[in-house]
Amino acid sequence: MIKSTYVPFICISQNRCIHLEPLLPSLRKRKRYIAVEVISDAPVQRNAFIAAVSQAGCAVLGDVGFAVCGISVLGFEDNVGIVKCWHTSVSQTIGVLTFMTWIDGQKVIVRAAGVSGTVKGAQIKFLQKGN
Amino acid sequence: MAANNPNSIETGQSNQFDCSVQSNQPVQSKRYFDYVSVNLIEDLCSKAAENLNSDNLDSDDLDSDDLDSDDLFSFTEHVDSFFKKFGFTDVILFKKPGKFDSDFSGVYHSLLNGDGAVRYYNGIEIEAENENALHSLIRKERPNADFIAVRSSDEKVIRAAAESPEADLVIPVTYAAGRAQNGSSNLHVSAGQINHIVAKIARDRKTAFGFDLYPFLQTKGYRRSKLFSDCMEMIPVLNKYNVPVLTISGAISFYDARGPYECEAFGTLLGLSREESAKGVSQFPAEIIERRKKQRSGQIIASGVEILTEDLQD
């Protein structure tokens, strides 16, 4: 009798990095995308915003809490952007954004414009093409 | 167009966020309340005056008498649009007892009397040293105020405020200016304590408890974590006795303002459930305002006795 065994697809590249097959969609963590707007006197740079998010996240939630929330900045330009987090930690993520008072030496307000399940949804619903 | 190409965001391509955030919030049918200082109105108007390129309006010479109807209208429009952008429908403007003396007091009065998209209420924030002073101040200010809040970290004053049926909100956190560090002010904050007796009294007298973001934004490090832990201790007691808990911004200047989403998130960080924190920015303040409105119009005769329709009066 032949037993069927599942062999994961392993690809060894030239750099000898092993790439596992991606997780099934049902096993992946669900994500939420928060559209944010930064209100400030001068434009805020992308790198400064990313650094401020991680700094505020660690200050408010702690290193472990920040890791649990899965917060990352997807894109940021012209003082608007999208912040990603796991669907269980939307409130904590908005809480972190709330406590961002200074970015790159200037006072700011970080406003959560809305939360969506997809990047496209966040853009269409909350971020409008410049008019 | 960025909206049609969501994957391009993750690649970090440029020119995909050359867009403006929509001014209208997704949910506008719900009423969202905030509790801000009149100093914020002053700050907003000063910023607006700086931005105005009018020849006849000089910010140094601004006086309430100098503001003509057009200027007044533009300032009130500016304040309205600010709160609308954040998604608020109702704003309680609090001030200390006494007359509000400012260059922009005309704007303040026109906001209170106006009937724009955002409704404004006259709030008084009382900070008393002892119970007697508290009672006398409440008695003095109640007839003129839509909303009375008591801020104290003294247990006796907190209990007296919870017992008073005339007080609407108790804020058990006080702050005083501290030495500035690294360009940011570091407040001296202290939080009071409550027990089950105070919570029971507050529930029976329909007095709400509130936590404002301002002292949390102005502190950091150990002070903020201590403040968090002190406030977090009160939440389970208040929840156990179903005392309404409001989460408010308490903004004093432009950069302290936060939206309803942020206030809700602040509530969940304190330990409230999502439903409770959502009620804390919408339902609970609406109930307080409505109850006071009914009392002032004579619809509520006594505690538990209310005239429901005009027909019953006849």
From TrEMBL, chain A:
State the superkingdom. Archaea
Could you tell me the EC number(s) of this protein? 3.1.26.5
SUPFAM superfamilies per record: Rnp2-like
- Keyword vocabulary terms for this entry: Cytoplasm, Endonuclease, Hydrolase, Nuclease, tRNA processing
* Example GO molecular function: ribonuclease P activity
Q: Which reaction does it catalyse?
A: Endonucleolytic cleavage of RNA, removing 5'-extranucleotides from tRNA precursor
**Where can this protein be found?**
Cytoplasm
Which is a Gene Ontology cellular component entry for this protein? Answer: cytoplasm
Query: Which processes are annotated in GO (biological process)?
Result: tRNA 5'-leader removal
The cross-references to Gene3D superfamilies, in alphabetical order and at most eight, read: Ribonuclease P, Pop5 subunit
Q: What is its main location?
A: cytoplasm
Q: Which InterPro entries match?
A: Pop5/Rpp14/Rnp2-like, Rnp2-like_sf
Q: Which family does it belong to?
A: Belongs to the eukaryotic/archaeal RNase P protein component 2 family.
Q: What does this protein do?
A: Part of ribonuclease P, a protein complex that generates mature tRNA molecules by cleaving their 5'-ends.
Describe its partners and assembly state.
Answer: Consists of a catalytic RNA component and at least 4-5 protein subunits.
Put simply, this protein is called Ribonuclease P protein component 2
User: Gene encoding this chain?
Assistant: rnp2
Automatic annotation (TrEMBL), chain B:
Origin superkingdom: Archaea
- List the record's Gene Ontology CC terms alphabetically: cytoplasm; ribonuclease P complex
Which InterPro entries is this protein grouped with? Pol/histidinol_Pase-like, RNase_P_comp-3_arc, RNase_P_p30
**Keywords linked to the UniProt accession:** Cytoplasm, Endonuclease, Hydrolase, Nuclease, tRNA processing
Record localization: Cytoplasm
Q: What is its main location?
A: cytoplasm
Where is the stretch described as Disordered?
1-20
Q: Which reaction does it catalyse?
A: Endonucleolytic cleavage of RNA, removing 5'-extranucleotides from tRNA precursor
Look up the EC number in the record and give it: 3.1.26.5
Alphabetical GO biological process terms: tRNA 5'-leader removal
Q: Provide any one GO MF term from the record.
A: ribonuclease P activity
Coiled coil location: none
Signal sequence, renumbered to the chain: none
Q: How does it assemble?
A: Consists of a catalytic RNA component and at least 4-5 protein subunits.
Outline what the protein does: Part of ribonuclease P, a protein complex that generates mature tRNA molecules by cleaving their 5'-ends.
Record-stated family: Belongs to the eukaryotic/archaeal RNase P protein component 3 family.
* Name used for this protein in its record: Ribonuclease P protein component 3
- Organism of derivation: Methanimicrococcus blatticola
